[in-house]
């Protein structure tokens, strides 16, 4: 088939197309039916694309001015009469945006470390910090009976509260800073108590000789105070809490 004859024996049909002599009119009709597109489909006709998409997908029905436009072909986008410019409008679904609050994961390392440190601080505050040693057989120093023990108890409670914030996912630097300050105060109280008990223990022999001039010198010289588990628990808890504050301060933003 051709639009122009390519030989003297070619013949022309009613549509003006030319066929060679060996093609009969019946074969021409059959070939035309194979090549002719189905008018009901409109798949290959660019001019009918809006109707096709509107019928198939429902585009272009009830659209508003602010809805997205799909442009097919070229032409002047500002001129709707340009035959090369074809638009298809698509109904945009209404999006519902729900506000989502950011949830941070808990800081398990700093939180668990803080809980352990706070537990040592609180429990150690109620235990003995020193007991009689050497030639002394009775006597003890309770942490809670002294102002230092009350201070470590308070700081232990603060450290426990801050550790709970770590475990709840509170990602603020001030949380770690509060833990550092509280634990730092507990460390200072512990060190001060160690120095105070050591000084008291060193002065025991001299005090005994002053109060009891007839006392045996060897007995008096051997009298002292021994540190007890409560003071070590408070010191260890304050250091652990301080480390928890440092790690939490670095991890949080």
Task: Quickly count the helices.
Answer: 7
Question: Could you tell me the number of beta strands?
Answer: 7
**Total tally of structural domains:** 2
Radius of gyration, in Å, reads 47 Å
Percent helix, as a range, is 40-55%
Reading off the top of the CATH hierarchy, the class of the largest domain is best stated as Mainly Alpha
The shape is: rod-shaped
CATH architectural label of the largest domain:
Up-down Bundle
On the 0 to 100 scale, the average pLDDT is: 77
Order of strands, main sheet, comes to 6-5-7
Calculate the terminal CA-CA distance, rounded to whole Å.
77 Å
Beta-strand content bin: 5-15%
Helix/sheet category? mainly alpha
**Order of secondary-structure elements:** EEHHEEHEEHHHEH
Summarize this entry quickly.
Helix content is 50%, strand content 11%. It has 253 residues and is mainly α. Strand 1 (11-12) and strand 2 form a beta hairpin.
Task: Detail the topology: elements first, then pairings.
Elements: E1 11-12, E2 18-19, H1 25-35, H2 49-57, E3 69-72, E4 86-89, H3 108-125, E5 128-134, E6 140-142, H4 147-167, H5 173-211, H6 217-221, E7 223-227, H7 229-251
Antiparallel strand pairs: 1-2, 3-4, 5-6, 5-7
